[in-house]
Amino acid sequence: MNKLIFQRAKFLSVSASGAILLLLSACADLKGIRQFSEVSADTAGYTALSIDYVKSIERQKRFQDQSHYADLDRIIKDRKQQQDALLGLHRGVQEYMTAIGALAADELVSYDSALDSFSKNLKSAKLPHLDDKSVNAFSALIKLIAKAASDAYRQKQLNLIISDSNIDFQTLISSMSDIVGLDYVSSLENEEAAVDKYYKKIIVIAENAPPQQASIQLLKESWQTKKDAIEVKKQSCALYAKSLKKIGEGHQLLYENLDKLTTKKFLDTLYGYKNEVEFLNKEIQNIN
C-alpha cells in the first residue's frame, strides 16, 4: 500500500513538472512577461539617486562647521569607493530582468563579463544594508545569467531560471530598496539639518545688523529652494524604493505561478504590476 502511494506521488510530481515544460515547450505568447521585464530593467537602470548618494555628503559639507570636515571627508571617500558597487547592483538586476524578457520572447540571453568585476566590488564595498547574504545573492544571480547565455537557454527554460533565482533576486531587491529608501533618505535628512542650521545662524547675524531686510529675504528664499530640492530627492527615494518592491512582488508572482505562465488570468495580474511600476517611474520624472 505504501509503495503504491509513493508511486502515485512520484507520478503526480513528474506530471506537474511535465505540465510546466509542456506549457513552454512550444513558443508561447508571453508578451505580459516581456513587458514587465522591460519596465523592470528600465527601472533598475535608473541610477540618478545612487549617484547622488555620494554628492549628498559633498553638499552637506558646505554647510557644516570645519570641525566636521574630517569626518565628512572620510564618509565621502567611503561613498566614492562604494559607488561602483552600488551601480553594480543596478546593473545586475537590470541584466537579469533583461534576460527574463529575452527568454519570454524565446530569444537568446547575452552576458556581459563586466558583471564579474561588480561582484568583486560588492565584497569590499561595506555598503549599509548589503551583508554577505546580499553579496552572495548577487554572485549567484549573475552566474545564472552566465549559464543561461552559455547554455543557450530559450523560452522553455524560463521557468527554470525564475525558480532558481527567486530567493537571491528578492534578497537583492530588498537590499537596493533599503539603501535608497532608508540610508540615502537618512543622508538627505542630515543634509537638510545642516542646511537649516547654517541658514538659521546667518539669518540671526543679519537680523542683528540692520538694515538687512532685503538680504534676509534673499537668504530665506535660498534656504527654501535648497529645502525644496532635498524634499524632491526624499520623495524620489520613497517612490523608487516602492517601485523596486513592486518589481520584487512581480517576480514572486512569476515564481508562484510557474505552471500558469501562459494563462490569461496570470498575465493580466502581472500586467497590473507592470503598470504600477510604470506609474511610479513617471511620478519620479514628474517631480524632478
Describe the structure.
This protein has 288 residues and is mainly alpha-helical. It has one domain (30-287). The protein contains 9 helices and no strands. It has helices spanning 2-25, 31-44, 48-62, 69-104, 114-125, 132-150, 158-207, 213-256, 264-287. Helix 2 (31-44) packs antiparallel against helix 4 (69-104), helix 3 runs parallel beside helix 7 and helix 7 (158-207) runs antiparallel to helix 8. The longest helix is centred in the middle third of the chain and has 50 residues, at 158-207. The protein starts with a helix and ends with a helix.
Q: How are the SSEs placed, and which strands pair?
A:
Blueprint: H1 2-25, H2 31-44, H3 48-62, H4 69-104, H5 114-125, H6 132-150, H7 158-207, H8 213-256, H9 264-287
Helix pairs in contact: 2-4, 2-8, 2-9, 3-4, 3-7, 4-5, 4-6, 4-7, 5-6, 6-7, 7-8, 8-9
Summarize this structure as a short list of keywords or feature phrases.
83% helix, 288 residues
Structural class: mainly alpha
The major β-sheet equals: none
Distance between the termini: 68 Å
Radius of gyration: 24 Å
> If helices are DSSP runs of H or I spanning 4 or more residues, what is the number of helices?
9
Strand composition percent: under 5%
Beta strand count: 0
Summarize the structure in short.
By secondary structure, the protein is mostly helical. It has helices spanning 2-25, 31-44, 48-62, 69-104, 114-125, 132-150, 158-207, 213-256, 264-287.
